User: What shape does this take?
Amino acid sequence: MSGTPDTARAVIALATEAGLQLATAESLTAGAVVARLVDVPGASACVAGGAACYSYGAKHRVLGVDAAELERTGAVTAEVARAMARGALSLYDADLAVSTTGVAGPGADDRGVPEGTVHLAVAVRGGGDRSAQEPRIALERELHLAGSRAEIREESVGVALDLLRTELERMAQAPF
Assistant: This one.
């Protein structure tokens, strides 16, 4: 099963060992990813924070997602997931950030995006001087999940943690 407590422990251990700060930008999961991370003892060494931004206005004001883009496309797109992750990097002065946006249901959203559609992104700021580095999108996923609202959200949390672990493991093999 993805996103188990073991995955969260691995993320915290890898980030702490590397001296990296983590952040989350969550819409669909409403803070559940950062909550899972801080369930791990010692998380304060590497978790900078998490932003639960459900409304368009919050995504724009807190994370800097382009308001016109949100109005034009809605929030459930790969571009919005990327912008949310970049925004969390900036907001928390973090090294890695994961974002979640999607439709948990029941049913499609008001734009017709089907239930279970989820976009996730991991943004990374590299190098020793974080302020001088442009963030890059390291990983992205588009999911099409089935199940109840709670199941879709829970699976999305698991995938977000898996993505963080994957990127942290990659970074450990090829440090920046």
Observations:
- The CA atoms of residues 104 and 149 lie 5 Å apart.
